[in-house]
Amino acid sequence: MLMILMIVKKGVIILNKNSNNYIYKNPLDHGYKQIYLTKKQHNKIFKHRQIKLCNKYEYYYNDNCILVHKFCNWKGIIANTILLPIIILVEGIGDFKEIMIEYKELYNQKKYGSFVQDNIYKDSNLFNEVMKLIS
Hints:
This protein is an alpha+beta fold. The chain contains six helices and seven strands.
């Protein structure tokens, strides 16, 4: 089994896939402040992480770091739910349990760690660009 261990500065996320000890800790509780960027602002700054139809982003910052969380939005969740019977037919009944686990993670992305997090640290140009936009 593959063991994934990811520890983010200040203990925001702790993940150990083997033991299912994932704990999501809200960045707001750890001194981060939430910020909002429009789709246009996001796409201008993050050239390799463009917002697509089924993406939702949350941004948090403190003096040293910006956290960017990427989730599947409600459009993606609805599309996946509608396609569930087709996915079961294609994957087969034998993978039904695994498919249901993936859907459970889709519906509770923060609870199960089913999202992508990018860290932008203070010494990068990207950090400065984002800070100029929000100030």
